[in-house]
Amino acid sequence: MTHDSSTVGYTVPGMEEKDAVLVVELLQARLHALNDLALTLKHVHWNVVGPHFIAVHTMLDPQVDGVRTMVDDVAERIATLGGSPAGTPGALVAERTWDDYSVGRADALAHLGALDLVYTGVIGDHRAAIARTEEADPVTQDMLIAQSGELEQYQWFVRAHLENSRGELTSAGASTERDAAAEAAG
Q: CA-to-CA distance for 39 and 90, rounded, in angstroms?
């Protein structure tokens, strides 16, 4: 059963119900993506091995904490707008539009290559939601802009491990997590 975000019981003053419904739907998709990202980051944290283990292992916990804060902010914004945030695993799996993370126990660079693609997807979708909330809800747009800045910094931390001395990403051009992992690991 999928979550029904087509109605709101009320919304914030000055916002039309149709705009609240649109924003709640956008935010529900962001909630799923951020919950999935937090779980993926912990998965990588637990399954990273190799000579770069400690650097990557310790880099990821602050990212998990930051993303979990974003999750809470998005869920609370949905509720503020009169919606009901769906944060259950079943709702996430039923409604997500992406495949599950595909790398298990692997070298740190392999995980970072795959994680770079995950961040690219989450950030791209956040930016699309930013564009769609400009007219409907600038308050939500501001929240998404701030979150995008943090997500972009987290991706930069990941990419710093993948960048060579010429400024090129070792996983550039990969279109799947497994390909990115293979290219990054060399």
A: 14
